[in-house]
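pinging the channel bc i need a second pair of eyes. not urgent but kinda urgent?? the chain im working w is below, pasted from the shared doc
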Amino acid sequence: MKKKTSVLSRFYIALIFIFLYAPIAVMMLFSFNSTPSTYTFGGFSLHWYSEMFNDAAAMDSLQNTVILAVCTAVIASVIGLLASVGLFNAKNKLYKKAMMTATNIPMMNPEIVTGISMMLLFVFAGTLVNKSDVLGFWTLLIAHVTFALPYVILNVMPKLRQFDMHIYEAALDLGCKPWKAFFKVVMPEIVSGIITGFVMSFTLSLDDFIISYFTNGPSFQTLPIYIFSMTKKRVKPDMFALSTLMFVVILVLLILMNFAQSRADSKGKRDVK
């Protein structure tokens, strides 16, 4: 009975993986297609990768997306670190619970609600300063930092809880200044959480479409929006090539993030022993 259950569970897991990753595998296969067909594979070729790099509009959108993702990750990591330290040191439990609840709102709120509400906020702010073309890079950056910030906080807070604050207090007693004690003693112990939050912020910003669609302007176009505009026409395999590269980059980042997390966890277990 146990063997039958084990076989069924493995078969079920295999079906889930096929359902999730078969479309991506097909897309990656047709990115190497030698013909423009999106349903008949004519042979292996790197033609569409060459076409992708020669597409100025696609490369501009990719550059905009990477710049936006890096800025989002950096700002969200800095603000998230400061917010995590502030919440961790807060004495009022009711205040701490209220702030953590507010932190979870951007994660639980539907993206279309967040996108529309932020668009209305930016347009309203633009009318106050008599500016009609307010939507652009800065509105996108504010929107992306808003939904990426909770992921940084939720990755840094557990690391702060695991840290023995008596070590920090001992550093202060030995004459170390508070900011120096934080960077010398606390920061090395929570850096894995900061890196995890940074990578998550980067990947979330990189592939976001719904919130970006409502908060971007004509002066700044991200890659997901550019790909969506291509779907109104016939999608060429060069978009398959671009999507394949994005998938590979995000996959590598996630592998590195999991590797760093596992190393930090193993180091923490060794320290406990």
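so The chain has a mean pLDDT of 83. and The two ends are 40 Å apart (CA to CA). — does that match what u expected or am i reading it wrong
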